[in-house]
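Running this now, will post back.
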Amino acid sequence: MHPELKTQLEFVENQVIIWAIESPRLMRKYLGNLIHQTISREGEFVLSDQGKEVEISKNVDIVLNPFEVDVNDKKCINKIYSELRELAYGEKYYLRSQQLFGMITNFLLELEQESSVNLSFGELDFIQLLKAMGVKCDDSDNGLVGRLGQYLQVISRILNKRVVVFVNLSAYLEQKELILLLEQAFYLKIYVVLIEKDDICLAFPKKTYIIDSDGCEIF
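Update: finished.
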């Protein structure tokens, strides 16, 4: 909640929030502040869970342009690699990982025997192996709704984000597509805020908050 606003956006499970900001000046102001807080702890918005404040930067993600969503950006890939490394060195896969590393090392030693030069190599690094194999999230779905669905899975299961804010998403998706995406989000236990320049008609459980062109709040 922003200190200049009386409105408190209340998240309810399986209910989308539509925040219509009709004034371009206020849209620019509030959205700018919120974007800053998703990359920094400092800001004027407050996100709380059962009365306890939680960090916006750790829990909220904003999509300004749905075409630029990248499930394989550096932050996601690093998190995925760390998770896979923990699995590989965990109790379930530790022996298999050691066998694999041993096979690779032995293979290199055999190649050295056939080579005309002496070789040296260090201990195998699992993350370097993942990078060498080009391991990443499957982003083969070229449809916009499909790519956004993949994005929701990544931010929920990999980055542990709990709230996603879409800006003017209704300009890109038809209502049936938007509903499909919202259903995916709620299945993943993600709360969704749609920031729009006007109120939108949506046949889906919702709560609408409006800031009109004069800065008056309607809810």
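Helices lie at 24-39, 56-59, 74-88, 94-114, 126-132, 144-157, 175-187. More later if anyone needs it.
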